Amino acid sequence: MTNPFIRFTLKASLFYVIAFGLHLAVLSTLNYPLFDNYILLSYVLNLVLVIVVFGLLYLLRKKYKSQLGFLFLAGSLVKFAVFFIVFQPLFKQDGVVSKLEFASFFIPYVLGLIIETISLSKWLNNLDETTS
Fold first, then answer.
1. Which helix (H) or strand (E) holds 63?
2. Contacts for 58-67 with beta carbons within 8 Å, 24 or more apart?
3. Does the residue 64 lie in any domain?
4. From the centroid of its chain, how far is CA 58?
5. Helix axes 39-59, 4-29, angle to 10 degrees
6. Is residue 37 packed enough to be buried (19+ CB in 10 Å), middle (13-18) or exposed (0-12)?
7. Each residue of 103-120: b (16+ CB within 10 Å) or e?
8. How many domains does the chain have?
9. pLDDT (tens digit, 9 = 90+) per residue, 10-61?
10. Mind listing the pLDDT tens digit for each residue in 27-37?
11. Is residue 132 part of a domain?
12. For a pLDDT cut of 90, what percent of the chain falls above it?
């Protein structure tokens, strides 16, 4: 059986590539510019943060087993803080955060939360079964 972190990294990467393609397809269908609003940066940065947070949880799984849920929430908070540090200043350059700008950050952010939550839930259930 392969390492859960490696499985997660591969699954998350594939998930993000597919989501990015679908996002671009929707933008194209609606005749919006494809690579405006820092969309590529958003997908890449969110994927990296998702992998880093999951990796840290994987490394800390034994020492902080009972606190992994709180560590997951802290990781989610860090990812949201990245929006305010990296993206909000870029989006606010014209004084307004447009719906397309918001979507270019929020969609990859939410997708990351979904895949992390599902994967972490399955992983923790398997971890509990192997330690009982």
1. none
2. 58/4, 58/5, 58/8, 61/127, 65/127
3. yes
4. 16
5. 160
6. buried
7. bbbebbbebbbebbeebb
8. 1
9. 999 999 999 999 999 999 999 888 887 788 988 999 999 999 999 998 888 8
10. 999 988 888 77
11. no
12. 30
What spatial distance separates the first Cα and last Cα of the chain, rounded to whole Å? 20
**In the structure encoding, which two tokens stand for residue 89, read together?**
């200043």
Residue 94 domain flag: yes
Which amino acid type is present at position 108?
Answer: P
Give yes or no for a contact between 16 and 107, defined as CB atoms under 8 angstroms apart: no
**CA-based torsion, 43, 45, 47, 53: positive or negative:** negative
d(CA 56, CA 42): 21
Range of the domain at 32: 4-126
* Residue, of 84 and 127, whose pLDDT is higher: 84
Is the torsion defined by CA of 7, 18, 81, 90 positive or negative? positive
pTM for this model (two decimals): 0.83
Query: Tokens 């929707």 identify what position?
Result: 26
CA distance 112 to 119: 10
